[in-house]
Design goal:
Layout lengths: L1 E7 L5 H15 L5 E7 L11 H8 L16 H4 L2 E4 L2 H10 L3 H5 L1 E3 L20 H23 L1
Parallel strand pairs: 1-2, 1-3, 3-4
Helix pairs in contact: 1-6, 2-6
Length: 153
């Protein structure tokens, strides 16, 4: 089983959206051998559902976001094969927490396997209008498609 962890700042917008999208895509493609979770670097929203605006935008695309926010723990380096950061700030924080080259090798940007947004940050939509949530979902759908292709190889 391949395990994937998506990480953003607070675990209420980008990372839970990526988690939901990847679960939906894997289900549609009949890929059942994945374990998918998300978390945030900070503890501000622990226990909370994803932002309502993100839940609504995702729901319009048939993606249900129901996970509860949790904070990143160094133990996750041992339990996940892929640890995907929403942006370079989160990426650098994760690399700082990594204890070994093996841990560092698991850390990538969420867009690392994207066909259209490779290497780009996934912008934080929290302080912007609803269009920002749609844009983030577009990026994450592309990124998750690429990640599934990588995993299948």
């Amino acid at each position: 089983m391949v395990s994937i962890l998506f990480v953003c700042m607070g675990n209420i917008c980008r990372s839970p959206a990526a988690e939901g999208i990847l679960k939906k895509l894997a289900d549609e493609k009949g890929i059942g051998s994945l374990h998918i979770e998300s978390c945030g670097m900070g503890d501000w929203y622990v226990g909370k559902l994803p932002d309502e605006r993100m839940r609504e935008a995702a729901k319009a695309r048939g993606v249900v976001l129901s996970s509860r926010a949790k904070q990143f723990d160094r133990a996750f380096f041992e339990s996940f094969d892929y640890i995907l950061a929403s942006d370079k700030e989160v990426l650098n924080s994760l690399l700082h927490h990594a204890q070994s080259s093996g841990h560092k090798a698991k850390v990538h940007l969420m867009t690392a396997f994207s066909s259209s947004f490779t290497g780009q940050d996934v912008p934080d939509p929290y302080y912007y209008g609803n269009g920002a949530f749609e844009g983030v979902l577009d990026i994450l759908e592309d990124a998750c498609e690429g990640l599934l292709e990588q995993i299948k190889q």
